[in-house]
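ugh ok fine here u go
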Amino acid sequence: MSTGPVRAAGCVLWRRAQDGAGVEICLVHRPRYDDWSFPKGKLKRGETPREAALREVLEETGHHCRPGAPLPTALYMANGHPKEVSYWEAEATGGAFEPNDEVDRLAWLAPDVARPRLTRPGDRVQLDAFLRVDLPAR
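structure:
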């Protein structure tokens, strides 16, 4: 029996806004929890946190991405167990969303619109850290 935290990883997935002004953040809706969050999930055996983050983004959003700066790790209790979620900022590089059992909706939102949509207030730590990252001009 493991006594350590449940380990997971995810990304603050972003893209340039369609109008060229700023960025949009991807939030996913999970019907099981009826929440809005960043794409994330548990590590598989032998998987690094970064590998898990990229896999989870693809599985939950249908998008490939280019990971960048690490963001603060989230530490919280989930179902009575400690959970540790590693995060990166990641630019979406292509793909398309298909609703599935795990994620039924996806929204690309301006950061100021994404902030109140996040169900878990603690997720705003990663959003704030993302907003301080000096994104490359691509």
